[in-house]
């Protein structure tokens, strides 16, 4: 139960981070008074700069939108998918099945994250604390998904 709660909390944090970057991607963060400057909310900040690069998209889709989808899937899975389901005498294990799919998605997310951190540091030469936080959350979620699956 504690593991599920930790996964839910990390997913909520990742969702918040992804929402922030989605708003930044679509230009809704620039000079926003409601966002503290510690969150890179000013024009020319590393976060705003990062979302304007080709590294902020996968096949034209903002990475943050994919993150929103991923974190929502994890939250629905951890909160609502039953461990066992019996239909007409057959026992199904939807929690495990969906968990394996999420584990695969999580592995891809972590591998892609290593590439993005490399691109941040070596190609763009930018420090982005919220980017690092998102990638750290993804690694932690991957480890926890291994433990719970």
Question: What are the key terms here?
Answer:
two-stranded antiparallel sheet; de novo design (two linked rop proteins); elongated; 5 helices; 66% helix; 149 residues; mainly alpha
Can you tell me about this structure?
- With 149 residues, this protein is mainly α.
- It has one domain (2-148): Up-down Bundle (de novo design (two linked rop proteins)).
- Helices cover 66% and strands 7% of the residues.
- β3 and β4 (90-92) form a beta hairpin.
- The protein starts with a helix and ends with a helix.
List the helices and strands and how they pair.
Elements: H1 2-25, H2 46-50, E1 57-58, E2 61-62, H3 63-80, E3 85-87, E4 90-92, H4 94-124, H5 129-148
Antiparallel strand pairs: 1-2, 3-4
Helix pairs in contact: 1-3, 1-5, 3-4, 4-5
User: CATH superfamily, please?
Assistant: VKOR domain
Order of helices and strands: HHEEHEEHH
Total beta strand runs: 4
**CATH fold-level label:** de novo design (two linked rop proteins)
Indicate the percent of residues in helices.
Answer: 55-70%
Which second-level CATH architecture applies?
A: Up-down Bundle
Distance between the termini: 13 Å
Low-confidence stretches: none
CATH class: Mainly Alpha
Mean pLDDT: 83
How big a fraction of the residues is strand?
A: 5-15%
| Largest sheet descriptor | 2 strands, antiparallel
Count of discrete domains: 1
| Largest beta sheet: strand ordering | 1-2
């Amino acid at each position: 139960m504690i593991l599920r709660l930790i996964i839910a909390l990390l997913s909520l944090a990742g969702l918040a981070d992804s929402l922030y970057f989605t708003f930044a991607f679509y230009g809704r963060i620039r000079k926003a008074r409601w966002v503290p400057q510690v969150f890179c909310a000013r024009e020319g900040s590393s976060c705003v700069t990062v979302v304007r690069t080709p590294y902020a998209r996968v096949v034209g889709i903002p990475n943050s939108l994919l993150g929103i989808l991923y974190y929502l899937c994890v939250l629905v899975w951890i909160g609502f998918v039953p461990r066992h389901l019996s239909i007409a005498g057959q026992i199904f294990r939807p929690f495990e099945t969906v968990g394996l799919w999420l584990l695969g998605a999580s592995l891809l997310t972590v591998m892609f994250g290593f590439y993005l951190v490399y691109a941040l540091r070596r190609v763009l030469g930018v420090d982005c604390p919220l980017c690092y936080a998102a990638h750290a959350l993804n690694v932690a979620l991957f480890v926890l998904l291994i433990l719970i699956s």
